[in-house]
């Protein structure tokens, strides 16, 4: 359908409005994550979040009715990034082992981009109500699906040693989280790219079947 007249003008205006709203939401969530990671949600007021974000407290209430909504918004923001970026990273790869690495790398990238929010997820998710906790759990399982699917396909093709795809998928997610949880330890030893490369190589060294190791020599960082 071709838009005409005021309809044609409204479409870009609406897109611009949504973009401004998304940018403002991101600004508020990042400010909340920084403060709550340091002090916990109970020690942070909506006014403090407004001050950190450089906005009025009234503006925050236009987006979030209370502090629980703000905490949930921080956590959901990370999961939304994962739900969007991990499938996009996996899609170009045909080989399931390389899809595993692509999914893991994308997961790590989201963690790196949202370190404060990841820490907040571990610290504050128990402050959410039952419905909020259930939503977070369901979305986390969904974001792990591309990685689990790639692992299962690699198993089906005999590319991996016998293992439980679900366990390996969540082991890799926990390793990705460790870039935030133990950043104080890893950051002085290596940069982010090295962390991802070393962790992926370690995973592959344990998971790839010996008959297929030469196929993925570039991912091990060693010659075939």
Task: Write a structural description.
- This protein is mostly helical.
- The protein has a domain at 66-216: Tetracycline Repressor, domain 2 (Orthogonal Bundle).
- Helix content is 76%, strand content 0%.
- It has eleven helices and no strands.
- The protein has helices at 5-39, 46-53, 57-63, 67-90, 96-113, 115-124, 130-156, 165-181, 183-186, 192-207, 217-220.
- Helix 4 crosses helix 6, helix 5 (96-113) packs parallel to helix 8 and helix 6 crosses helix 8.
- The relative contact order is 0.10.
Q: Which descriptors apply to this entry?
A:
224 residues; mainly alpha; Tetracycline Repressor, domain 2; 76% helix; elongated
SSE blueprint:
Elements: H1 5-39, H2 46-53, H3 57-63, H4 67-90, H5 96-113, H6 115-124, H7 130-156, H8 165-181, H9 183-186, H10 192-207, H11 217-220
Number of strands: 0
Distance between the termini: 55 Å
Look at the structure and name the CATH superfamily of the domain at 66-216: Tetracycline Repressor, domain 2
What is the name of the CATH architecture of the domain at 66-216? Orthogonal Bundle
Poorly predicted sequence stretches spanning 5 or more consecutive residues: 6-10
Run of helices and strands = HHHHHHHHHHH
Total of DSSP H or I helical runs spanning 4+ residues: 11
């Amino acid at each position: 359908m071709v838009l005409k007249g005021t309809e044609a003008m409204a479409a870009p205006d609406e897109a611009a409005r949504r973009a401004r709203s998304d940018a403002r939401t991101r600004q508020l969530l990042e400010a909340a994550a920084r403060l709550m990671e340091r002090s916990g949600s109970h020690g942070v007021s909506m006014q403090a979040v407004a001050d950190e974000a450089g906005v009025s407290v009234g503006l925050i209430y236009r987006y979030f009715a209370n502090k629980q909504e703000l905490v949930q918004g921080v956590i959901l923001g990370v999961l939304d990034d994962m739900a969007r970026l991990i499938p996009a990273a996996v899609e170009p790869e045909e080989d399931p082992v390389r899809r595993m690495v692509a999914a893991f790398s994308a997961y790590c990238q989201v963690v790196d981009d949202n370190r404060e929010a990841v820490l907040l997820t571990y610290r504050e998710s128990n402050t959410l109500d039952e419905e909020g906790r259930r939503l977070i759990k369901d979305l986390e399982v969904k974001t792990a699906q591309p990685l689990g699917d790639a692992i299962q396909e690699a198993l089906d093709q005999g590319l991996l040693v016998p293992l439980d795809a679900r366990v390996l998928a969540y082991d890799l997610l926990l390793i990705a989280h460790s870039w935030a949880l133990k950043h104080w330890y890893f950051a002085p030893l290596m940069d982010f790219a090295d962390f991802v490369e070393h962790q992926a190589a370690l995973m592959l060294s344990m998971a790839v079947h010996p008959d297929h190791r030469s196929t993925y020599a570039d991912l091990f960082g060693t010659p075939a």
